[in-house]
Every structure is written in C-alpha cells, then in structure tokens.
C-alpha cells in the first residue's frame, strides 16, 4: 500500500435530503465520514435565527485553550472541564444561557427544532443528554471566523467518568450553518484518528494540533451553504479554514448514540 492517493470508499461524505436512519447507522459503523443535508431547515427559519443572533454580542471561548479566537453565543461544556469531569460552573452557566436564548425573542427553540428534524427518520428519541440527572446545555452558536485548528472530539478521552448518564457507542458532531462567507470557511476532514504520538504535534495548551499531524493522508473539504446541516464523525481529525469576507455562524452540538439506540445531544 504505497499509493497515498488511493481512496477509502468509507471515508466519504454523503449528501441526502434528510438524515436517514441508514446513513446515521452508517456514520456510527464507519461506513460514512459525514452526512450533508443541504436544506435542513428553510432559508427563512435560518434567517430568523441569524437575525436574532446578529443583534446580540457573542463571547469568546477561553483564549488559553482556543486560539485563534472563536466567538460563541451559548455554553460549551469544554470551557468547564475540570480534572476529567465537569465543573459546577457549567450548571450555573447553562441556566443563564437558557434565559439568554429566550431573550432572543424567537417563537421557537432552534435546538429543539434541530433535534426534531435530525430525528425524523430515527426510531428512538433524539433528546438532550443528562449528567447526574441534570440536562446538559442544548448547544452553542459558534463563530470560528479565523477557523478551528486541526483537532478531534471524543468525550471518552476528555471525561474520564463518562460525560452523560448513558453508555455511548458512537459520537457525532452536528452543525447547522446559518451564514457562510463567500471565501474560506471550509470544513476539512482527514482520514486520521488520534494516536498517542500525535501529542508531539499538540499546540501549546490548545485543543488543536499542528497540521503536519495528519501528514499526507487522504482528506476532503466541505463548503457548506447556509441552511445546510452536517453530521460528522469527529473522531477523524478535522479543521475549519479561516473566513475571508463575512461571518461564519453555525449552531452546533455533540450527539451520542447510546446502547439503547437513542441520540443524546449536548453543548
Ligand atoms: O464548524 C464546522 O464545520 C465544524 C466544527 C467542529 O469542529 C465540530 O463540529 O466538531
Ligand atoms: Fe470539532
């Protein structure tokens, strides 16, 4: 196997009109790398969410761990990780966050809508996961205008006691893109999963890695459009390229598949 250009047919994004049960199962089983749904919500619904978000101030993710800076409206548990668990500050933060989202004045809950739509073909519940009986935050509006570094997401490795009150057998990342710059903002995925030596490429104190960590393995790029949703396997190393003109805002949450077939989400 010397040909680095050879293509793994299982390392592919598929595009569909909705999140079909078979595609979600294929994502969990490693037969797809990502699922794209170009018109996940109507353009007008996305615009409504976007207009509400454009009227409020975003905050910055913790700058020691997340650089270049990424802006957010909402709470991500990664900012409240403590010794392989979750700091009490998370629960206060999501309570405030709940009010902040209500104050946007939307007459629907965008994360609820995303879960409902994600679950239209799924036989079991799609709901917010709990930890010690308490519901996690539903998700975050994220604005990585200067991109996300090459990284992977895996709650098993970040939360030693298991993050949710459930046995997870797969983890996905959900993003609904609300606005995308003409230039830049691509999501890139590499056919590389974490191995211990990768820590030699870790950027100081960062969530991310130097791009040479992925070497010359096969990769693909996705340039989502507004109103598109993507469910991806975040165990593959991935990155977001910097935006060069407009803002890049997406609603995002993690999704865990449980041993009873439920999809549990968290922000
Ligand atoms: O914004 C994106 O396209 C992907 C962001 C990301 O790293 C994730 O959802 O895990
Ligand atoms: Fe990620």
From TrEMBL:
It comes from the Bacteria. GO terms for molecular function: metal ion binding; oxidoreductase activity. Pfam families: WelO5. Residues 134-257 form the Fe2OG dioxygenase domain. The keyword DNA damage does not apply. The keyword Metal-binding applies. Keywords: Iron, Metal-binding, Oxidoreductase. Belongs to the iron/ascorbate-dependent oxidoreductase family. This is Fe2OG dioxygenase domain-containing protein.
């Amino acid at each position: 196997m010397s040909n680095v250009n050879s293509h793994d047919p299982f390392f592919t994004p598929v595009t569909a009109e909705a999140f079909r049960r078979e595609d979600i199962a294929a994502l969990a089983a490693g037969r797809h790398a990502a699922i794209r749904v170009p018109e996940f919500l109507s353009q007008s619904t996305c615009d409504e969410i976007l207009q509400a978000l454009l009227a409020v101030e975003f905050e910055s993710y913790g700058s020691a761990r997340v650089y270049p800076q990424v802006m957010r409206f909402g709470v991500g548990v990664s900012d409240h990780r403590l010794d392989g668990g979750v700091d009490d500050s998370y629960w206060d933060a999501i309570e405030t966050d709940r009010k902040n989202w209500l104050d946007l004045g939307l007459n629907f809950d965008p994360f609820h809508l995303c879960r409902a739509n994600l679950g239209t073909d799924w036989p079991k519940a799609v709901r917010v996961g709990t930890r010690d009986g308490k519901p996690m935050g539903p998700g975050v509006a994220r604005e990585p205008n200067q991109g996300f570094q090459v990284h992977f997401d895996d709650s098993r490795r970040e939360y030693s006691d298991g993050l949710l009150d459930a046995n997870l057998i797969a983890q996905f990342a959900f993003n609904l893109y609300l606005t995308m710059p003409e230039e830049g903002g691509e999501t890139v995925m590499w056919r590389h999963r974490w191995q211990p030596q990768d820590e030699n490429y870790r950027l100081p104190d960062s969530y991310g890695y130097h791009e040479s960590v992925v070497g010359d393995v096969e990769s693909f790029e996705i340039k989502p459009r507004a109103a598109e949703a993507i469910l991806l396997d975040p165990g593959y190393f991935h990155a977001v390229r910097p935006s060069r003109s407009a803002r890049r805002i997406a609603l995002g949450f993690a999704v865990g598949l449980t041993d009873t077939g439920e999809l549990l989400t968290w922000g």
